[in-house]
Amino acid sequence: MFQALHETVEYxxxxxxxxxxxxxxxxxxxxxxxxxxxxxxYNLMYSNIPNFPISTLEFHSGKLIFGTLKGKKxxxxxxxxxxxxxxxMQQITFPIRAMKALGIHCLFVSNAAGSLNPxxxxxxxxxxxxxxxxxxxxxxxxxxxxxxxxxxxxxxQPYSRELIDSAMAIAxxxxxxxxxxxxVSVTGPNLETKAEYKYLRIIGGDAVGMSTVPEVIVAKxxxxxxxxxxxxxxxxxTEVLVPVSLEEILETAREAEPKMTKILxxxxxxx
Length: 271
Prior knowledge:
Its EC number is 2.4.2.1. InterPro entries: Nucleoside_phosphorylase_d, Nucleoside_phosphorylase_sf, Pur_Nuc_Pase_Ino/Guo-sp, Purine_phosphorylase, Purine_phosphorylase-2_CS. One of its GO terms (biological process) is nucleoside metabolic process. It comes from Pedobacter heparinus (strain ATCC 13125 / DSM 2366 / CIP 104194 / JCM 7457 / NBRC 12017 / NCIMB 9290 / NRRL B-14731 / HIM 762-3). Homotrimer. Strand 6 (125-133), helix 3 (161-174) and strand 7 form a beta-alpha-beta unit. The model has no long low-confidence stretch (mean pLDDT 94). Helix 1 crosses helix 2 and helix 2 crosses helix 5 (213-221). The longest helix is centred in the C-terminal third of the chain and has 24 residues, at 246-269. This protein has a five-stranded mixed beta barrel with strand order 5-8-7-6-9, surrounded by four helices. By secondary structure, the chain is of the alpha/beta class. The chain has one domain (2-269): Rossmann fold (3-Layer(aba) Sandwich), CATH 3.40.50. The protein has six helices and nine strands; from the N terminus they run H-E-E-E-E-H-E-E-H-E-H-E-H-E-H. The protein has helices at residues 2-15, 89-102, 161-174, 194-202, 213-221, 246-269; strands at 23-27, 39-45, 63-69, 72-78, 106-115, 125-133, 178-185, 207-209, 226-235.
C-alpha cells in the first residue's frame, strides 16, 4: 500500500500545484451540492488518479475537488466507494489514506441512511455519535504499518464530541431538526427486511446505511478527528413497511441537503 499511496499522492500534488488541504470531506448519496459552496481550484476525476478506485454508481460523480470553503482549504470526495461495489475495505478507504498523506487534520463525512428510531423522521438529520459495524471485515485487517497508525486503535470516541456539540448548537440556532444517534453500517446493496430493521433497532441502532464506518475506522487509525452526519431518507420502524425506491431516497436527500450543507459549512468556519 505504501508504494501505491506514494504514487497517488505525488500525482495529486503535481496536478494541484502542491495544494495542501486542511480538511477532508466525503459526500454521500445524493449529497454532492456542498461542492457549490467551495471556491474550486482543482478537480480530478478518480479515473485519472493512479491506484484510485472508481465509483461505479451512476449517481456518484467520482471527482476529487480541491478548493476553499469558509476560508479553509478542503479536499472533497464527490462520490464515495462501497463494499457492495466489489471493492476491498482497503480500496474503499484508500482515499482517506491519501487525504491524510496530503495533510488533512479533520474529516467530515455525510451519508443517506434509513431511520430506525420512531422519533427520527424522514427528512431529518442525525449527527452520528457512535456506530455499530456489521460490515464483513475491518479495513485494518492484515499487516499493520506502525507509521500509519497503531495495531489496535482506540474506538471509545470515534466521533469528535467537540464537533458534535458545535454542530448541535448550529442546528438549534438555525432551527434545523437535528438528532444525535447510533449509525449501523451494513453491507447492502439490498435494503433491509422488516425483521432486520427491528433487529438493528434492538441492538441499539438509530439509523442504518451502507458506508461511513470503514472511512471512520481508518481516520481514527490515522489520528484524524471525525464528524459525521446522516440525512434520513426513509423509515424502517413503521408497522407496515413501505417499499422505497432509489429515486425517492435521492429526492429526500436533495430536499434535506440544504440543511446539512448549512451545518457543515458553518461548522467548518469555526475550525
